[in-house]
């Protein structure tokens, strides 16, 4: 707004006998103020707000103010959102009679102006005197969950009431139509957005956002556990990629003494086993005999309590003879050290923190199976050339706290990551570090100090073809390899055995299979790096591996800080000079094949357009939570493409430069050009439709 216009507006106010009444008369008679954005009405209103601050004698009181408040209330439900706060402030609506305000909001609600009623309630802080279920139900039917979250944001009691209501609706026996029936004529009604699945996702989002005890929502938690139970049966009996001990650990942890889940466990056992097998597992999981069908109960009576739980299905475990098909740890078992005390840690510290050292780093945590909260790291693996250290993080943190030295472990880890003279090898390091920060808060921000880091996730899509040793007939039978396992197969000839990946890593003692799996996961990084350094050309990399990888740091949108901008020593400790990349420089050109993105909800058009140009694209469905984009980005090293409000939230969950906001008002083609220009993606004729069938 020009200075001249501002001055004219203020002179106008000074000439008016009653500026507050004058503004209302102006707004009521003008059609301009109802438009969006910074209209003339908006400019005049905000100038009056500033003018009143400079002239404290202007605000009115008494009957005259009440009449003005009544007029402005009638106007608020129609005015643009940016006028609400100035008008509420100018006409002191917070001082108006509360019952009068509640009555006005109730009138809006009865007219079907549900969104306006809720927004006004939030602005005037009327929520404690309202029925949370009544106010929020029509908004949920219109797919306005974000407004519902804002409505309860400052009121813990209302958060609990809302969560209990949503949990009641998520009971499998509850008929959703009982809720929707009174709102059949609702404008912008989206019944497809109002079902058990969507409501369940909303409950988990609210539980996490407001840090509420999940015990408040037993129906949703039970349903999530049931889905996990079905998933575990699939992994064990259909896919056959989970060991018996691993499976049993999770089943017992999930089912526990929950009668409802025990009933579903028995039904699943009967689908996948015979009665004798179901009886053995029921005994192992301590299912009460009265819950068992007669045939299973009879079999249970025949069993001896000391009987070992045997495999009772056709699930085909990989025998030891088949282990030769997988990557094998090349160091003896006695060189794997499981560390639980600080005395042991000090010896590890001395060996790891040596200049020129190359360290493979990996972490394990108990699978969350979609439950609330970030995973807490249960095991930190550090692999050196001749030995592997497995750090029992929960035990070590507990000890440090007991000794009053909480920061001791964090100090060691920060020294390791910030030392440019030590090369740290990882795979998807940024995701690991965010879990580490959730486990030990003193490590928050470690990724900003990282130096000397090589994230092999950056190599994943650059590695060409399979290694010469790769010849697996069994590959056709097994599940397709992915992630680190696939990279190990490409570079070293055999994939990782991932049967222990979904283990309960918090349970102690760890099984021998878990210890070997954890050590292999970290040690294989050393072998991959050494192999690529020796012979980069045969894998489609540049002749100087360090040069090839450092060059890709700014080019290839993978996990954060794939390589530090300084020198990265080779396994022998010799330093190879890599180009320095200044943050201010534009990114080097890359091809669409090297560019991996995940498109947030509502950007499917952009995603399809980029895929036609040869870009590696993952698309979110419109009902997916925005945070799923961050999970995929961290796990797979993708850049997030989003728009609007989710940008700020998503940007904070991934590395710098890993999230890009596009203009949602533009068409897919313009959005795509914006993305390609920003990341310097050079599209050739051969790239067009290269990913299409």
UniProtKB/TrEMBL annotation:
InterPro entries: 3'-5'_exonuclease_dom, Exonuclease_MUT-7-like, Mut-7_DEDDy_dom, Mut7-C_RNAse_dom, RNaseH-like_sf, RNaseH_sf. Keywords: Exonuclease, Hydrolase, Nuclease. CDD domains: mut-7_like_exo (cd06146). One of its GO terms (biological process) is nucleobase-containing compound metabolic process. One of its GO terms (molecular function) is 3'-5' exonuclease activity. The keyword Repeat does not apply. Residues 336-537 form the 3'-5' exonuclease domain. Residues 553-563 have a biased composition (Basic residues). Residues 565-575 have a biased composition (Polar residues). This is MUT7 Exonuclease. It comes from Chloropsis hardwickii. The gene is Exd3.
């Amino acid at each position: 707004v020009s200075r001249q216009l501002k001055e004219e507006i203020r002179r106008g106010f000074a000439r008016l006998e009653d500026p507050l009444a004058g503004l209302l008369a102006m707004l009521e008679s003008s059609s301009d103020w109802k438009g969006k954005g910074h209209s003339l009405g908006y400019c005049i209103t905000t100038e009056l707000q500033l003018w009143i601050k400079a002239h404290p004698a202007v605000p009115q009181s008494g009957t005259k103010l009440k009449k003005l408040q009544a007029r402005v209330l009638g106007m608020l439900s129609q005015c643009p959102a940016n006028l609400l706060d100035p008008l509420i402030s100018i006409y002191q609506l917070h001082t108006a009679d509360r019952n009068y305000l509640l009555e006005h909001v109730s009138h809006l609600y009865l007219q079907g102006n549900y969104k306006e009623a809720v927004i006004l309630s939030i602005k005037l802080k009327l929520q404690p005197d309202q029925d949370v279920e009544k106010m929020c139900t029509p908004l949920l039917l219109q797919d306005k969950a974000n407004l519902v979250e804002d409505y309860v944001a400052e009121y813990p009691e209302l958060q609990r009431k809302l969560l209990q209501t949503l949990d009641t609706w998520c009971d499998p026996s509850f008929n959703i139509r009982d809720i929707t029936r009174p709102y059949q004529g609702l404008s912008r009604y989206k019944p497809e957005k109002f079902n058990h699945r969507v409501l369940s996702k909303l409950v988990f989002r609210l539980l996490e956002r407001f840090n509420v005890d999940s015990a408040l929502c037993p129906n949703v938690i039970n349903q999530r556990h049931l889905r996990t139970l079905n998933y575990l049966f699939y992994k064990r009996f259909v896919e056959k990629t989970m060991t018996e001990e691993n499976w049993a650990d999770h089943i017992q942890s999930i089912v526990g003494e929950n009668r409802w889940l025990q009933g579903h466990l028995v039904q699943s056992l009967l689908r996948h086993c015979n009665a004798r097998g179901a009886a053995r597992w029921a005994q192992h999981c301590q299912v009460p005999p009265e819950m068992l069908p007669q045939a299973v109960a009879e079999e249970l009576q025949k069993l001896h309590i000391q009987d070992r739980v045997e495999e009772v299905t056709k699930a085909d475990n990989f025998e030891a003879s088949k282990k030769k098909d997988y990557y094998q740890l090349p160091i003896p078992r006695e060189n794997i050290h499981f560390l639980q005390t600080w005395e042991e840690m000090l010896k590890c510290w001395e060996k790891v923190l040596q200049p020129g050292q190359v360290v493979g780093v990996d972490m394990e945590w108990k699978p969350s199976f979609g439950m609330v909260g970030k995973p807490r790291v249960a095991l930190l693996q550090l692999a050196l050339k001749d030995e592997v250290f497995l750090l029992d993080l929960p035990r070590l943190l507990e000890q440090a706290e007991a000794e009053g030295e909480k920061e001791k472990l964090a100090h060691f880890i920060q020294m390791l990551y910030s030392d440019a003279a030590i090369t740290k090898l990882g795979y998807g390091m940024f995701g690991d570090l965010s879990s580490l920060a959730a486990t030990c808060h003193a490590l928050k921000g470690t990724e900003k100090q990282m130096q000397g880091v090589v994230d092999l996730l950056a190599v994943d899509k650059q590695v060409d073809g399979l290694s010469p040793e790769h010849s697996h007939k069994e590959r056709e039978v097994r599940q397709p390899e992915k992630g680190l396992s696939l990279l190990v197969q490409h570079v070293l000839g055999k994939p990782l055995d991932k049967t222990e990946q979904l283990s309960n890593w918090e349970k102690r003692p760890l099984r021998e299979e878990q210890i070997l799996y954890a050590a292999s996961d970290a040690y294989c990084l050393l072998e991959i790096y050494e192999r690529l350094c020796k012979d980069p050309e045969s894998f489609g990399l540049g002749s100087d591996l360090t040069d090839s990888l450092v060059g890709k740091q700014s080019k290839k949108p993978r996990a954060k800080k794939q390589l530090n901008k300084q020198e990265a020593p080779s396994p022998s400790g010799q330093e190879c000079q890599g180009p320095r990349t200044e943050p201010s420089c534009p990114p080097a050109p890359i091809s669409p094949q090297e560019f991996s993105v995940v498109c947030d909800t509502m950007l499917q058009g952009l995603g399809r357009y980029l895929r036609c140009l040869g870009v590696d694209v993952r698309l979110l469905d419109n009902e997916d939570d925005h945070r799923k984009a961050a999970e995929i980005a961290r796990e797979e090293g993708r850049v997030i493409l989003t728009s609007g409000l989710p940008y700020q939230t998503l940007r904070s969950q991934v590395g710098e430069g890993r999230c890009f906001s596009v203009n949602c008002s533009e068409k897919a083609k313009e959005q795509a050009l914006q993305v390609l220009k920003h990341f310097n993606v050079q599209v050739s004729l051969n790239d067009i439709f290269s990913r299409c069938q």
